[in-house]
Specification:
Layout: E1 6-11, E2 16-21, H1 24-30, H2 33-44, E3 58-62, E4 76-81, E5 88-93, H3 97-103, E6 108-112, E7 119-124, E8 127-132, H4 141-152, E9 158-161, H5 164-167, E10 175-177, E11 181-183, H6 188-194, E12 197-203, H7 213-229, H8 231-240, H9 245-251, H10 273-277, E13 288-292, E14 302-305, H11 329-337, H12 344-357, H13 361-376, H14 382-385, H15 395-407, H16 411-415, H17 419-425, E15 434-435, E16 438-439, H18 449-457, H19 470-473, H20 489-506, H21 518-528, H22 535-556, H23 567-571, H24 586-597, H25 607-613
Length: about 625
């Protein structure tokens, strides 16, 4: 139960769509979504494959709780070998697409090969077919969504698509569903574009069954009550969204600024949640209109914003006056503090373009910041940038580069390489703030020590959503730890990584864990699914998934030498804030991490560990 027990295998080379049974032995070990999708990928491709080769596969996977009434049970993930990193990629998205896929009767779609011409996959319940997308190629995500719904006369259809960025090989292109929800990191959109697959459109009219309905309803209601009564999930996130963190992290001295030159942004308040709620527009209204929830979500952290019609970025572009995907913390940081830009409307516009053309605002802002660093050092000139001055703090430059990157034109094509490739191209690799080729998110490891270890060891490259130790180190959830201390962080990071892998694989949003532990999640999974799901078995499943991902990367050519941070964070001390004078303590934490993981000193899981986990 909960699983539909059906996989749709789509061979793009042959143009075929075939149903096959889900491997339930694997499901009972890897649960679903991130874990189960990665297991299928691991079994079916050579980890050394070129990510943009037809031999790479791409999997859309739901979790067993996806599509149920459990709070936040609308998630799905895209699993592949990442174009940006060459590492295992699993990019998680909310909205309504994942639930719709379950309602159509599918746990997973496996895409293989490459279509000769552009196509999109149309699924209506158990009917699946590949249709021509030649008329859609070159269109934005937003125009593609509208065109497919009009073609099928089906406004209830939910669509995941790539924009021009994915078509043209932007290395951090996203797959965007429901207009402004995205499988956003690691270049999954570039993989989709390399296969000439423009979109996946789904309409499902079924439902999701659970093993024990009474127990499931009891456990999900208890979970919703806990979320409503929690200060973060019941108050902070609904009111301010993830942007509630902007001033908090800045005051903690861990807000990376101007390509990690600094750890505090003097204009953080200008781009904060509080600023979004102020009546700042020329018509007297705030940037933020309301909040929004994904499928079955009782938190509703999403932002619906509207840009000031008199702002320079849209004064002659009425098509953006009604755009609504508002800034979340990571995007506001990457487009703002990382580039030194304090213009909230310019950030909102750039975020619209990221949604419309389908590329990751975190990697874009970080890559642009690295380019600005090189420009200020004289490595890049106006001849390289098409006449644009890449100066920190320029809102006009930010919006122009957002437009160019979305269509991969001018210097935007260079920015689409990602910061690692861009900085290597111009001989300054040390200015790329990446791990395994993926750009850092919005937390400085000098001010939050656990996040340095999190970034260095993340299987998909630098990522906050694999081990959000900010929860403990800054917010005190589930218990407060000192953000400036390295003591105990190895065990903390491992615990967060394993628990997060289980939550991702169940089909739930990681934001629930501000209020829930596995003690709250296990009864929901156990009531929905066959098998024996306890907090301990979920934690073991998470550890199994983490080690499997590590094995994929090792087979792909990564090693312990890739568990590192840029020199800037290891050598250049924080200039201000609580962490003033400090660098990352990764050198101390990493050997301890390998030990608690049951890996050897080179970062390779031991046979004993793999045997214990059945990997």
């Amino acid at each position: 139960m909960a699983w539909t027990r059906k996989i749709l295998r789509v061979n793009l080379t042959e143009g075929t769509c075939v149903s096959e049974p889900l491997n339930m032995d694997w499901a009972l070990k890897y649960l679903g979504q991130r874990g189960l999708g990665t297991k299928y990928l691991m079994e079916e491709i050579d980890p050394k494959v070129d990510p943009l080769s037809p031999d790479n596969k791409m999997i859309f996977a739901t979790g067993p709780l996806t599509g149920t009434c459990a709070s936040t049970a609308g998630r799905y993930s895209v699993i592949t070998k990442g174009a940006l990193t060459g590492a295992i990629a699993c990019s998680n998205s909310g909205g309504y697409f994942g639930a719709e896929l379950k309602f159509a009767g599918w746990d997973m779609i496996i895409f293989e090969g490459k279509s000769e011409k552009p196509v999109y996959l149309c699924i209506i319940d158990d009917k699946a077919e590949l249709l021509s997308a030649e008329g859609l190629w070159g269109k934005s995500v937003w125009d593609t969504d509208a065109a497919i719904k009009a073609t099928h006369q089906e406004p209830m259809m939910h669509i995941a698509a790539i924009g021009v960025a994915g078509e043209k090989g932007n290395m951090y292109a996203c797959i965007v569903n429901d207009l402004h929800r995205a499988a956003g990191r690691s270049g999954v959109g570039a993989v989709m574009g390399s296969k000439n697959l423009k979109a996946v459109a789904v309409r499902g009219t079924g439902g999701v069954s659970v093993e024990d309905f009474g127990a499931f309803m009891k456990s999900t209601e208890a979970g919703k009550k806990a979320l409503a009564e929690n200060a973060v999930t019941g108050e902070g996130l609904p009111a301010y969204g993830t942007q509630v963190l902007m001033n908090v992290i800045n005051e903690s001295g861990a807000l990376p600024t101007r390509n990690f030159r600094d750890v505090q942004f003097e204009s953080a308040n200008d781009i904060s949640a509080e600023a979004m709620a102020e009546p700042r527009r020329s018509d007297g209204k705030p940037n933020l209109l309301t909040n929004q929830a994904c499928f079955s979500c009782t938190i509703a952290c999403g932002r619906i914003s509207q840009i000031d019609k008199d702002h320079f970025s849209v004064v002659n572009k009425p098509e953006y006056w009604g755009a609504e995907g508002g800034l979340e913390y990571e995007a506001a940081w990457a487009l703002g503090a990382a580039t030194g830009v304090k213009d909230l409307e310019a950030l909102t516009y750039a975020n619209y373009i990221c949604n419309e053309q389908g590329y990751d605002p975190i990697s874009f802002g970080s890559t642009l910041a690295a380019a600005m660093d090189m420009y200020e050092e004289g490595v890049l000139t106006k001849k390289d940038t098409g006449g644009v001055e890449l100066k920190f703090g320029s809102a006009e430059m930010l919006t122009k580069m957002a437009d160019l990157t979305g269509t991969m034109e001018g210097f935007g094509e260079q920015l689409g390489l990602g910061s690692k490739r861009l900085c290597e191209k111009y001989g300054r690799p040390e200015l790329s703030m990446t791990v395994k080729g993926q750009e850092f998110p919005a937390y400085d490891p000098r001010g939050i020590q656990g996040m340095g270890l999190t970034y260095a060891t993340s299987n998909r490259g630098a990522c906050h959503l694999r081990s959000y130790t900010v929860s403990s180190e800054i917010l005190g959830i589930p218990e407060k730890t000192d953000p400036l201390s390295t003591d105990g962080k190895a065990g903390l990071v491992k615990a967060f990584q394993d628990a997060t892998a289980a939550v991702d694989s169940a089909g739930l949003c990681i934001f629930t864990t501000f209020a829930w532990t596995l003690e709250d999640i296990a009864p929901q999974v156990d009531a929905a699914c066959e098998g024996n799901w306890t907090p301990d078995t979920l934690m073991e499943a998470g550890e199994r998934i983490w080690n499997m991902e590590r094995n994929f990367n090792l087979a792909a050519g990564f090693s312990g030498k890739d568990d590192e941070l840029p020199k800037r964070l290891m050598k250049d001390a924080a200039k201000t804030g609580p962490a003033k004078g400090m660098v990352s303590g990764l050198d101390k934490m990493l050997p301890e991490y390998y030990e608690v993981r049951g890996w050897n000193t080179k970062g390779v899981p031991t046979e004993e560990t793999l045997s214990r986990l059945g990997v």
